Structures are given as structure tokens and as C-alpha cells.
Amino acid sequence: MNLVTSTSQDFEREWSSFHANRKPLGWMLRSDMSLGWVRFHSLPNSKRYAENETEEGIILSRAYSLANATLGMNASCWQIECRKEELNPPYWDLAVSGTAATTFVDDDETQWCAHVLETIWRQGTLDSILLAIADDGTGPTMWMDRKTGRIFAPYDGGFDLLVSSPEEVNQLRMSFGDWLSDHPEGL
Q1: Is residue 108 domain-resident?
Q2: For the chain, which end, N or C, has fewer CB atoms within 10 Å of the first or last residue's CB respectively?
């Protein structure tokens, strides 16, 4: 057995233990009403994209604050990068290239490939990928805490957090209330 196969099997086992019958795509997970979900915007006034270094700093500050609250500092995580199968390398610059874990089909019959990497969530170490995600320069990417199954799923415009309970959602809403959307559905 090679390392990629072992990593793939470990990921699939751990993903299934927390998220059986779910696909590792943020928009699909947030629509599952049995999960505790909350969304925060990456910039003030629901602005979608950064225009300067100051705004990039705001995005990074919010990303690390929310991820630390969701995953925990120095948490053992899976970094999961999903790409449409026809867009796999060389078309996308994958941070975790070469670790294809699984393929799956979404609700629209699109074929996806999930690339995974065992990693430790550390403040300040993921600036480039977080900014690429915020600028819509990469495909769907998320981090899952290996012990709790909690998920931090940034996207261009904000961050989806999937946690264990409605109480955790309420705590996050109280802690980071200024970053919430005014939209009635939380989008």
C-alpha cells in the first residue's frame, strides 16, 4: 500500500464517520438541515472581493479567527480540495496535488475529484490559499477537524462553518455577529 492509498482510506473512513452520505462541497453541506451551519462575510458591508492589501488583511484576520473558533488552533485536519474532474491538473494549481482521495457526483451530475492532505491548522500559514479562495482563484476547498468533524469552508465572499450543534452556531453568531449577513436565510 502506498502513502496516497493510505491517506485516501484514512480520509474516507474519517469523513464517513462524521459526514456519511454527504459530499465534501460546502454548498451541498450547508443545504443539509441536520448540520449546524452559519455563514460569515469576509469583508464589511458584504463586499465580495478585496481591492487592496488592507482588505486582504481583513479577509485573513476573519478567516483565522473563524477557523480557530471552529477547528481549534493547531488542530489535526484534513485539507480537502475538490475539482471538477475535467479541470484536474494542469488546469488548477492544487495545493495538495497528487493525493486524489475519492471521486463523486454532485446533485447536478457533475463529476468531482477530492484531493486531501493531512495538515495542522496553524494561524498565518495558509495566507496564499485563503487569498486565492477569496479571489475565486481555486476550486472548493475546506478543512475538517479530524477529531470533531467540524468544517471551515471559505469561499469567494465569506466562510461557511459547519459545527456539531445549534448551540455552537449560536455561540459563533454571538462571538462574530458583526460579520453576519443581513439576509433572512443567512446567505
Answers
A1: yes
A2: N
Query: Edge-to-edge, what's the strand order for the sheet holding 111-120?
Result: 36-41, 158-163, 151-155, 141-145, 76-84, 111-120, 100-105
Residue 184 inside a domain? The answer is no
Cis peptide before 90 (omega within 30 of 0): yes
> What confidence tens digit (pLDDT) does each residue in 59-89 have?
999 999 999 999 999 999 999 988 876 554 4
Q: Can you give the pTM of this predicted structure?
A: 0.87
Bridge-based pairing of strands 158-163 and 36-41 is antiparallel
Number of domains in the chain: 1
Asked, for residue 187, whether it belongs to a domain, the answer is no
What residue ranges in the chain does DSSP mark as E strands?
36-41, 76-84, 100-105, 111-120, 141-145, 151-155, 158-163
Range of the domain at 166: 3-179
Instruction: Say how far apart CA 112 and CA 98 lie, in whole Å.
Output: 15
Q: Which of 97, 124, 93 is nearest to 4 (CA)?
A: 97
Percent of the chain whose pLDDT exceeds 90: 56
